[in-house]
Fold:
Amino acid sequence: MVEAERRSVLSGLAAAALCSRAVIAPSSAAAPSSGKQAPAFYRFRMGNYEITQVSDGVLNLPLADAFAPNAKRDEVNAALEKAFLPQDRMTLVFNPSIVNTGKRLVVIDTGRGEGRSTAGLFFENMAAAGIDPKSVDTVVISHFHSDHINGLVRADGAPTFPNAVIMVSATESEFWMDDGNMARANDRLVLNFKNVRRVMAAIQSQLAFYKNEQEIESGIIAVATPGHTPGHTSFVLQSGRERLLIQSDIVIQDIFVRNPEWFAFSDLNGPQAVQTRRRFYDMAAAERLPLLGYHFPFPSIGHIAKEESHYQFIPTAWNPTL
Ligand SMILES: [Zn+2]
Structure:
């Protein structure tokens, strides 16, 4: 478009905007704004299963220096800018999933635990979705970081899902419950070990263990995806001929999809996490499978496309019908 044309289009748009504002200007005072976000849950079907994504909320924190330990801060800021995210901030999203298989109600990961302002909203959003924690049959945990296990326990210390079996990876449990591993951990990681022991003590009588490739519930299969933690697990959901991937923490934020070589600050084994990420995303892209990302923007369902050396997350549009 030549410059004169561009200017005339822009001034035309501006005139149209002014004009429409004049026409639709309200004659009475504006209605008061609600000041509160709407409940955040989203439903869709996969085969015979009904899946509800339930938001636990979003954290917006100052960017940690070691957010991506093998990338420079400037490179991270450039990636944030490219993704239209605020620079020098880390925006972390948390989205547990609830699967109704028709016979069993299964929660996959549980959020950061209640009583927090902008993340820790799993319980109130679950209530808004009409799901009673007492009716949950099975809880499946992908790994033992606090943003996945803390929701197992209420603020008063009572188990959140009193009637559920709580399935955890045997490998993950062995790592975090090992006293030698805890003795060798740095200060930050020791807090993680202590948190795991606090939560596991509260739900001890409900615990059961799954192994790699085990069908945990009908059509819910564990796939070992180590690196983020030693027993980190993703899941394949299968119903009839349809399949869906639940990636868990293959990435902790969507800028890692475009920068798959970056380690995340919470990856216990960065090189292994990168290798796992590439293998998992190559498979997701090649098989064109829909995918849920715990840390993708709500409701976090979409596809992974491969673009030369990196990937792209393409969200699925909101669908008013199931
Ligand atoms: Zn996480």
Notes: The radius of gyration is 22 Å. The first helix runs from residue 3 to 24.
